[in-house]
């Protein structure tokens, strides 16, 4: 059974052009895909292709112009943001900016539990400790502040905040962009382990085609708001149909070859 089924999702966004002093319209979609428990869908494309805008539509930060987002049979495109947040959670690109520097990690993780559950204070504390352990942090980290953490630890806290409401799907927007290669590798392995243990669906937005090829089951390729190609990861990388997809894959392969030499 599908965790999520996106049907003909479209969005129109007015973009201000300060040079021409007029508005242009950015059209996203139609986007169609489905995702099962334990699967990873990667969304790739150049800057401005609509990847992050699609992520905002999926988690409810933007409302679609038309189309449907079906999660376990419920139409999320007609739900409020608070209803969506239980089942679809997001990891943002810059974990440093998304963590309040004035709050301890415990307070940051407790907030979604206070707002969205009826757990007692003791139950919330146990849930926080359990979630910190899931992402490879210690109980004492709940007393830490943002500035006391490494980049890798901050990203683990962002992951813990996404996990704490037991979502079915996590949307990750360039979650590894600010990490050095060794920390990036550890974080990728952590995500894949959690996916196996929890049966999560991942929607992964990235420029890094090496990671995309490693972790994703399916790929959507976007250009200027349109889906130019989609399919299984191996097929997209080995037999791309669209010239734009071929260009992205060839550039990735050229980079791999240069690193090997």
UniProtKB/TrEMBL annotation:
Record's keyword terms, sorted: ATP-binding, Cell inner membrane, Cell membrane, Membrane, Nucleotide-binding, Transport
Cell location: Cell inner membrane
Predominant cellular place of this UniProt entry's protein: membrane
Gene3D superfamilies noted in UniProt: P-loop containing nucleotide triphosphate hydrolases
Coiled coil: none
Topology in membrane: Peripheral membrane protein
InterPro entries noted in UniProt: AAA+_ATPase (IPR003593), ABC_transp_ATP-bind (IPR050319), ABC_transporter-like_ATP-bd (IPR003439), P-loop_NTPase (IPR027417)
ABC transporter domain boundaries: 13-249
SMART domains per UniProt: AAA
GO terms, molecular function: ATP binding
Family: Belongs to the ABC transporter superfamily.
Protein name listed in UniProt: ATP-binding cassette domain-containing protein
């Amino acid at each position: 059974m599908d965790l999520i089924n996106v049907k003909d999702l479209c969005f129109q966004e007015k973009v201000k052009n300060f040079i021409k002093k007029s508005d242009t319209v950015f059209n996203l979609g139609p986007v169609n895909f489905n995702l099962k428990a334990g699967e990873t869908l990667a969304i790739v494309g150049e800057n401005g292709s609509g990847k992050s805008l699609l992520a905002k539509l999926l988690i409810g930060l933007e409302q679609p112009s038309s189309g449907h987002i079906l999660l376990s049979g419920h139409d999320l495109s007609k739900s409020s943001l608070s209803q969506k947040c239980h089942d679809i959670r997001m990891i943002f690109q810059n974990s440093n900016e998304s963590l309040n520097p004035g709050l301890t990690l415990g307070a940051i993780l407790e907030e979604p539990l206070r707002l969205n559950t009826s757990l007692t204070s003791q139950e919330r504390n146990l849930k926080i400790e359990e979630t910190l352990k899931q992402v490879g942090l210690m109980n004492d980290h709940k007393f830490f502040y943002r500035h006391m953490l490494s980049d890798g630890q901050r990203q683990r806290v962002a992951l813990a905040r996404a996990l704490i409401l037991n979502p079915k799907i996590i949307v990750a927007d360039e979650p590894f962009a600010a990490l050095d290669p060794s920390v990036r590798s550890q974080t990728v392995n952590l995500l894949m382990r959690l996916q196996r243990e929890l049966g999560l669906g991942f929607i992964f937005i990235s420029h890094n085609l090496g990671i995309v090829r490693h972790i994703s089951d399916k790929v959507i390729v976007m250009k200027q708001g349109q889906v130019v190609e989609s399919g299984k990861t191996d097929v997209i990388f080995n037999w791309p149909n669209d010239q734009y997809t071929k260009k992205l894959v060839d550039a990735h392969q050229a980079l791999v070859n240069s690193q090997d030499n």
